[in-house]
Amino acid sequence: MQQQEKPAVEAPWTAPPEQILKELNVSADAGLDGGEVQRRRSRYGSNRMRQAKPQSAGRILIDQFASAIVLILVAAAAGSFLLGEIVDGFAILAAVIVNTVIGFFMEMRAVRSMEALRQMERITARVLRNGKVQEVPADQLVPGDIVMMEGGDIAGADLRLIEAARARVNESALTGESVPVGKGIEPLDREIPLPDRKNMLFKGTALTAGSCKGVVTATGMATELGRISSLVQESRNETTPLERRLESLGRRLLWLTLAILVVVAAVGILRGREILLMIETAVALAIAAIPEGLPIVATISMARGMLRMARHNALINRLAAVETLGSTTVICTDKTGTLTENKMTVTRIVLDEAEITVGAEPKDGAHFFRGDTPIAPEDHETLVLLLEAGTLCNNASLGDGHEHKAVGDPLEVALLEVGVKAGLDRDNLEEHYPQRREEPFDPSVKMMATFHQTDEHYLIMIKGAPEVVIETSSRVQGREGARRMTGDLRKQWNERNLRMAEQGLRVLAIATKDADSLDARPYEDLTFLGLVGMVDPARSGVAEAIARCRDAGMKVVMITGDHAATARSIARQVGLIETDDQEAIEGKRIKPVQGLSDDEWRRFADARVFARVSPEQKLHLIDIHKRAGAVVAMTGDGVNDAPALRKADIGVAMGIRGSQVAREAADMILKDDAFSSIVVAVEEGRVIFNNIRKFVVYLLSANASEIFTVFVASLLNWPLPLLPLQILFLNIVNDAFPALALGVGRGGQGIMKQPPQDPGEPILTRRHWWSIFSYGGLIAVPVLASFWIAMTQLNLDAAESVTISFLTLAFAKLWHIFNMRDRDSGPLRNEITTNLYVWAALAFSTLLLLGAVYLPGISTVLNLKGPGSQGWATILAMSVVPLIVGQVLKAIVRKRTASAADR
Question: Which of 158, 334, 442, 735 is catalytic?
């Protein structure tokens, strides 16, 4: 059954309910009949998301071979088998298999975004069909169905509301709105953004209060949730900078290997050497050119990084994402629940006689301040009355015990909490003022009221939207009693409300009224008490984390579905912007990058705050930053964040507050939801990249020494000083452990004071290639010298001479690890000498070398013999030469660098 991806009614929020019902040919009192339901299901398809084909284990396994280096190794193994070098071939395949197995099991934690989306569909709906209310699975809804909902129900499709009684909906996962929003039925402008479509209920959102009745206008992939799922599918995972760098390195190594083969063949032919010998030499050089241990070490290093990040509350879904964090230049972060607590807190109370600030934590034993002066709430009669009204006109609950779990509307929870700070006990208040009637919050009047009995009459407590409460108040309570609410006074209070809203506060007004009976009209002739300003406070440590990002050369950008004033206020608190008047760009101004002028995209790329942003606009912003050459990390927790999490170089989801969709779409999940954990992960990513660069230089310089050794020996018409299987043993077994030790190092000091790695910069720059060939020559010279000494001075046979050159090379490569220290570090205490894994690797590799020489079987396969005392003296003397020379050269470079800095 083909599923339509367009809603049955275009822009249903723009038309009155009667017109929508007429367009869908349905009665609000009878609903659809059974036959019409079947016809519409045939036309529109099932109310389900399109199922994305999950990535199979076989596909994941095949992907492990999608690397130039791995393919080179496979080709080398095939060549060895064709030449009859069976042991060599199996040795190379062993390297491929080890890398494949590690990568396969680490990558099995694949993204399952669409499966998570489908979890949201397993709900039922109460519909009106054939004039009767029925409960049906939500996936059986069709356009035109009349759906009835109560508090706690989840919308199974997109609905145009036709009735709404005090309906409030939690849309945070879809829109980023931090508190439940009220719903109504009045038509709206066509261009109004999704978070402001107050007459619509969207699939996957939850009704938190009140009740409503709506007609289905879109199902399945045509819903807003379905549209997001399409974006998740379309936002394919792009290759990370590390993957691109390793592929580039693999291609270079491929051409280098081919060039070596051609040169060696040409030299051999010109010198008239035997073809079989030339093939043997070419195979040895090809094996020497390929760093067989590189994929294994890179994979294990990143896997180790994953485990280390997990200890810092950062879970990684993709191996290559570990390093990419270190290259991140822009972090696009959601506001609600990421930079903020997703919990409303009262921070300001404005009375007729005073403006009072409320501290989150007590200062000098006080929570309430007038200016910098602490005040006692009981000394301010109006303040106490306002706090009592906020506590009593309230349906939330703070819960019991140390967990202190709050239940209810976040705005009402905030009112209860500020009452507790003032020492109010709700149970005690309700004993003195028992509630006799409640007028629930009504979106049409934007107020709520409760009636409380006193000794002689009823006290009505009212809270609601400031502009409405101010308008319906006839008096203002002050220190000297109530005074008349004049036109000028009403204007002043409205201006105060506007200023508070512009500062990012959510504002409620509180009022009271005396009544003689429960039948009194609650919303007339009110006594205005004051305004209560609330904010979703910044999470602890966020400002410091953002400052560290700035020091590390990274830009943090807030992208939220909330209002611009609220976004700007939080951005100011956490240090994203410096002044309140800095621009917060609204999402409606964001277009695809192809449609932007140069000035527009530069302006958007430089901006720090974006508000009222839709899922598509988040994708556009990521494209804008990528066009500017940035490596983009995107944080998020809601369904609406999933496409952007997939599109970004690094998707970072919240583990506690995050939806399952967001967690499955992300590359990294923060178990503690702390933005500061991102900074720790970025630091770890930088350390890992530096470690990868070090062990790549280490492995390739060691391999270069093998190339130079074999190539020079062939030019001099010497016997091969290294046999192919011996080279494989060094590359796969002996070199791997020191390289791994480099890969798990903790890194040097000040890594977060450096700018991010240029994403266009390869793993190996010209300077690194120069170091590789220089070190390669530096190691090859003593190896060739030891081979010459063994043949001419010690008069050893070919096998014993090869053992001398083999061990000289092996130990020279082991000591060479100390040449990998940073140039600005000291020779005795640095990130290499303080790495315990390095010493363990050297000890283990030494045992392996001794075993290769003296253990029966292995020594036979590798064609090695005991070198004797003179041989060992030659080996040890020659093998330390590269280390000594390397350290001297580093000291010279360090001294020159320091002198240049002083000048």
Answer: 334
